[in-house]
UniProtKB/TrEMBL annotation:
PANTHER family: HTH-TYPE TRANSCRIPTIONAL REGULATOR RUTR (PTHR30055), POSSIBLE TRANSCRIPTIONAL REGULATORY PROTEIN (PROBABLY TETR-FAMILY) (PTHR30055:SF209)
Location of the DNA-binding region in this protein: 44-63
Keyword line: DNA-binding
Source organism per UniProt: Nocardioides endophyticus
Phylogenetic classification of the source organism: Bacteria, Bacillati, Actinomycetota, Actinomycetes, Propionibacteriales
Protein name per the record: TetR/AcrR family transcriptional regulator
Length: 199
């Protein structure tokens, strides 16, 4: 079975004018730098517009709200990770055994969730993780489970594997003082049980 065609994180936008595309990249670049420097919670629309040298009205027309801007920055990071899953080097990308790919998928998903936790919170309801990014991850896990010849309800089993890697679950568990390595080891144990693979 060949690698499935995986949907992009968000629907493709209509073609942009060259100046609009330039402004969009300038704004996203400025927002990303400010997030990395000050943290997502501290980034304001005024600061992004000033750093990008673009009017605040342009910023709001492009992203509609601060949540929309944070979601766009998050989407950019998700797109980079998605590209590694689809066409990057193995074992995350194609070419490795499905079990090895699933293990690396879980580790990198955990790491990116923790890395972007604040950004995910700040994106709120506009967050890409609530829509396209989650759909991509679910499609990929279903594909790997099919490659591993897992029996049972594959879509529900994929949800079970993905749920612990999402921020609300991680935040709940972290309240109990779980170190990341212990959490990952527990996730691997869950994946083994779903796949029917001995330790």
């Amino acid at each position: 079975m060949s690698e499935p065609h995986l949907l992009p994180l968000l629907d493709a936008p209509p073609p942009e004018r060259r100046d609009a595309a330039r402004n969009r990249e300038r704004l996203l670049g400025a927002a990303k730098e400010l997030v990395e420097r000050d943290g997502a919670h501290a980034v304001t629309m005024d600061a992004v517009a000033t750093a990008a040298g673009v009017g605040k009205g342009t910023l709001f027309r492009r992203f509609e709200s601060r949540e929309g801007l944070m979601a766009a920055v998050l989407n950019h990071s998700e797109s980079e990770w998605q590209a590694q899953v689809m066409s990057g080097p193995p074992p995350l990308g194609p070419g490795a055994e499905p079990w090895d790919r699933l293990l690396v998928f879980g580790r990198t998903r955990l790491e990116t969730t923790l890395l972007h936790a604040e950004l995910i919170r700040e994106a709120g309801r506009s967050g890409a993780r609530a829509s396209g990014a989650y759909s991509f991850a679910a499609t990929h896990v279903r594909y790997l489970l099919s490659q591993l010849r897992v029996s049972g309800d594959i879509p529900l089993l994929a949800v079970a594997i993905l749920a612990p890697l999402e921020l609300p679950i991680l935040e709940q568990v972290s309240l109990d003082g779980f170190p990341v390595d212990r959490f990952y080891d527990g996730w691997v144990d869950l994946a083994r049980r779903v796949v029917g693979r001995s330790a």
